[in-house]
Amino acid sequence: MLLTAPIPLRRESLRPRRSPMRFAGCAPANHAAPHSHLRRAVQPRHGRVRHSVARLLLALVALAALALPATAEVTATDVTGREVTLDAPAHRIVLGEGRHLAVLGILHEDPVALVAGWRQDKGLDPATRAAYAEAFPAVEQIAPVGAGNRQLSVESTIALDPDLVLLSLVDFTDPNMTRPLQQLEAAGIPVAFVDFFTHPLENTVTSLRLIGTLTGSEARAEEFITFYDDHLATIRDRLAKAAPEAPRVFVQVHAAPGACCATVGRGVFDAFIEAAGGHNIGREAVPGVMGNVGLENLLAADPDVFLATGGTHMAPRGGLVLGAGVDEATATESFDALLSDPGLAGLRAVAEGRATGFWHLFNDNPFHVALIEHLAKRFHPDLFADLDPEATMAEFERRFSPVPLHGTWWVAQ
């Protein structure tokens, strides 16, 4: 006899499943074969287990995602007003100025680890390069991407697969860089422009913030900016309050006897002179950033203060030798030789003991703040008697340089 009574449903068995087969003469469904009730009871439990395992796996995936480092985009505006966006903080940088490794050193304990390539023009001075090589041997593995007068090998740069190319404001305005910049853009390589040279007081803070943001070191950048701004504010505020008369200043760059006189117009050292309370008379003589003034014109201009820049690169020419790795005796000897030149010896500023020499490479590094302090003391000794530029350099080395800074940075009569 075929049983036609309905089969009662179980709430835990809502998933579709194959119904048990029934034949005439067999027991009713509610009297199934032995252990069939176990099968029906266990199946829903398997479903709950699988659901719990899935939830556990999802939770583990979520925790793993939280443990991964963030790779959010970073965006900053460079000194030309261009917005630069990276997928993540840069770690394979190509430097357009090799000496800007020291700028990265302000913000990172191991700046060499961030640099894949550099243009060898405008590189580190020999003593600073040696200090970095001793502290970071990998500096010798940084790939060259060009040399000479601002030459950049686009092919070499692209081959390094950089995530950022840092160039200077000079590159932005150089017509010879138009094509290389177009090629980098076409290759999808981000380019940012910084400036510690052309307009240093206007662009140093902007450049540092840009590098800090694009390399994930914003806090360190702000720490240095506070140090930098505080030192400049002391000079600026006192000058504004006292309003002393600005001495008329002439600066000879790359100074050597018998080679008078390369000088600067607006920008570069002009900005340091003005910030220290002086007036650069080169502004009236040189229409651009740099130019030349004849000795006769210099003598006729009769500056109140004579400045000269030098470095180890001037030693072969018998010029003024200053900077990293230079001892005081060498610096003084070269300065005395410069001032003994018959032409410069005729300057009233030299005759009256108002001549100063300083390291030329202050012109492309944020530690120029110490030079401005030194010049302020020279221009207005009573107003700035308490300034200690040597202590400022020492603090800079202690807090913001990954390598020792030893040398003679300035010399005066």
The gross shape turns out to be globular
Radius of gyration: 35 Å
Instruction: Classify the beta-strand content into a percent band.
Output: 5-15%
| C-alpha end-to-end distance | 128 Å
How many alpha or pi helices? 16
Largest sheet: 5 strands, parallel
Number of domains: 2
CATH topology of the largest domain: Rossmann fold
Mean of the pLDDT scores? 87
Q: Judging by the overall fold, what is the CATH architecture of the largest domain?
A: 3-Layer(aba) Sandwich
Structural class: alpha/beta
What's the CATH H-level superfamily name of the largest domain? Answer: Nitrogenase molybdenum iron protein domain
Low-confidence stretches: 1-51, 64-70
The total of beta strands comes to: 16
What topology, given as strand order, has the largest sheet? 5-4-3-6-7
Helix content: 40-55%
The CATH class of the largest domain is identified as: Alpha Beta
